[in-house]
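Re: that chain you flagged

S.,

Sorry for the slow reply, it's been a week of failed gels. I finally had a moment to sit down with the sequence you sent. For the record, here it is as I used it:
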Amino acid sequence: MVAFKTFLKAGHAPTLFASFLYFDFTFAIWVLNGAMAPFISEAFHLDAAQKGFMVSVPIIAGALMRFPLGVLSQYIGRKNAAMVEMGLIVVALLYGYGFVNSHDQVLAMGVLLGIAGGSFGVALSLGSGWFPPRYKGLAMGIAGAGNSGTVLAVLFAPPLAMKYGWTTVYGLAAATMLLPMAVMWFAAKEPPDREAHQTFRDHIACLFEKDGWAFSLIYVITFGGFIGLASFLPTYFYDQFKVTKVQAGQLTMLATLMGSAVRVVGGYVSDRVGGINTLSGVLIGVIATLVLCGLAGQSLTITTLLFMLCFAALGAGNGALFQLVPLRWPLSTAVAGSMIGEIGALGGGFVPNAMGQSKQLTGTYLWGFVAFAVLAAAMLVMLRFVQIRWTRTWAEKGGRARLKEAAASASSHEADAGLRLRPGRP
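Prediction finished late last night. Pasting the structure tokens below so you have them in one place:
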């Protein structure tokens, strides 16, 4: 408890909370079509491949939104970018409430829901921007735990859709966005770090670095797996085990809750044992649980428990990877995070499509699980090679922060924050 209070005093707790809430609600909106997929699929009589594609559209659209929003945040500020995005989300949801009544319009609505998927890099950079390097992993883990918005979506959307109709859920969701907007407006403060002073050339530099692509490919597994599975699980539980639509959402909630909660643990552990070590264990766990999930398709209880373990590993991996990002790109964390998040989320579109095609072509979801497990194994091999260079250049063994550099950066960070907060200083 004392250590956590020390952590909070090292930064700006209201901004961290506002960032978490912002990411939590936008994440819930992003996966709304996945949470309501059994209702939408029934309304338009979709086959397995169409279900997978419909679920993947918001994921892909959200991935493409991340980098532009990250760049925008560098020019107008992360808080202002968050407010603009949330305003656009409200407009998109009102469109869904009033005008969506065909399969094509559902796909168009999926593109609009992708606006909500752009929040990732901004939320994490805003929330962690007040904290020195030694606490970046934990701060990003707390802000990133906003992916618990998946829990909100799968827990509340199905019963509301059952009672009021699935298009009405869009309108109700628009009203809920007023809460994070109010908290962001009144509680958050733009961090004192210097990300906004970088040139556009600096912003896009990470796009041309090997490390940027290595991070992105690993994130295809940890975050792509999380968002892809979270969006598809309501459909999987409903089709595979013939549970009700509401029960499918509740079972999905059990799995995704694990991933959201353990993300904070992943950041905390990575600060101590290193993000590379944590990611290695995560990838092994993901490979094992994915294959076992595919093989346990006849037992609802075993499958649910395996998904909980899989999501716990994925969540820890997300926290671990973003413990490493500010160490590698300390002055452009928002844009680097957005670029990495963009590729990772694009990977999330692979999961529902692979699952849908597997079911459509072979009559079983097994090969969808196996395909993603093979990708995870490839990323594990890649990590064992690239970590040699990482620990020789910008990280300690295992992926921890370099103590001398972290201390110097922390002193500079705290001095800068003190100057900015000193009374009478502009």
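What I noticed first: The chain has one domain: 17-186+199-414.

Talk soon,
D.
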